[in-house]
């Protein structure tokens, strides 16, 4: 069973976001594996341990993303690939195109990724990749069973549960609850240093710049307004409703 896991390096969710001159200040920031991608890595390792095969983790990003891939190797993945090239655009279409160029040349049965990344919340890369590869996909899975060349998954459908059966190869994105990701052990960290780690550029993938050009552009970046203290409305229900309506109209100006 050959499994490819899409990994993105993101801000640690405990980090304070500072925006300066329209960009996020990365000075002194701690980066981690996108938390939803950790579920994908853990699931891939469990499948590999049960069925045999290989787990390859792949990321498109800056050189520092190698740290996230090293962490995945320390968790138990078998090899890592970092696609790093400043000519690759920064939107989901560009990243998916770069991943497609690599994965289309690989042998795989399953592709796993996170449901979405915590930094931009887009959740588009994996779905776009499945479309480019022409394989079925299911998002937000909380359970994955593999047998006889098929997958049966439980999918979180915004509070409801969907059970889906689909043939392999297929792509899945992991939702919280799929498993409990392991922490890298000291032995795993030491082993990770000797595992295969490839770094690829557009030239290695035979891609021209136009194929990985961004289709979208960010026009502005700013933090949301600071949260204000709430108000408690007292009195009889009818009076509360009247006061709420007045506040929504005169202060919040939403009606």
Q: Can you characterise this structure?
A:
- By secondary structure, this protein is of the alpha/beta class.
- Helices cover 29% and strands 27% of the residues.
- The strands form three sheets. The protein has a nine-stranded mixed β-sheet with strand order 11-10-9-12-8-1-6-7-13, with helices on both faces. A two-stranded antiparallel sheet has the order 2-5. It has a two-stranded antiparallel ribbon with strand order 3-4.
- The longest helix is centred in the N-terminal third of the chain and has 17 residues, at 35-51.
Topology readout:
Blueprint: E1 2-6, E2 9-11, E3 19-20, E4 23-24, E5 31-33, H1 35-51, E6 54-60, H2 66-75, E7 79-83, H3 92-103, E8 110-114, H4 125-133, E9 137-147, E10 150-157, E11 160-167, E12 170-174, H5 186-192, E13 197-200, H6 202-205, H7 237-250
Parallel strand pairs: 1-6, 1-8, 6-7, 7-13, 8-12, 9-12
Antiparallel strand pairs: 2-5, 3-4, 9-10, 10-11
Please tally the β strands and state the result: 13
| Oligomeric state of the chains in view | single chain
Helix content: 25-40%
**How large is the radius of gyration?**
22 Å
Structure, briefly:
With 255 residues, this protein is an alpha/beta fold.
Salient structural properties:
29% helix, 7 helices, 9-stranded mixed beta sheet, 255 residues, 13 strands, alpha/beta, single chain, two-stranded antiparallel sheet
């Amino acid at each position: 069973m050959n499994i490819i896991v899409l990994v993105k390096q993101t801000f640690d969710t405990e980090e304070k976001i500072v925006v300066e001159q329209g960009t996020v200040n990365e000075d002194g920031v701690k980066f981690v594996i996108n938390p939803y991608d950790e579920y994908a890595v853990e699931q891939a390792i469990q499948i590999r341990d049960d069925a045999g095969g290989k787990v390859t983790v792949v990321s498109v990003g800056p050189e520092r993303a190698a740290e996230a891939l090293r962490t995945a190797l320390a968790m138990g993945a078998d090899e890592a690939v970092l696609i790093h090239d400043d000519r690759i655009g920064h939107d989901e279409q560009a990243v998916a195109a770069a991943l497609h160029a690599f994965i289309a040349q690989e042998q795989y049965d399953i592709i796993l990724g996170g449901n979405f990344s915590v930094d931009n919340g887009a959740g588009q890369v994996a779905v776009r990749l499945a479309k480019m590869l022409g394989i079925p996909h299911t998002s937000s899975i909380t359970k994955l069973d593999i047998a006889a060349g098929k997958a049966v998954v439980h999918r979180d459908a915004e509070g409801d549960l969907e059970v889906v059966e689909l043939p392999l190869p297929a792509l899945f994105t992991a939702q919280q609850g799929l498993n409990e990701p392991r922490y890298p052990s000291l032995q795993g960290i030491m082993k990770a240093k000797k595992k295969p780690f490839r770094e690829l550029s557009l030239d290695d993938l035979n891609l021209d710049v136009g194929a990985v050009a961004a289709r979208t552009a960010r026009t502005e970046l700013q933090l949301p307004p600071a949260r204000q203290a709430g108000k408690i409305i007292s009195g009889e229900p009818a009076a509360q409703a009247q006061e709420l309506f007045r506040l929504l109209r005169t202060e919040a100006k939403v009606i």
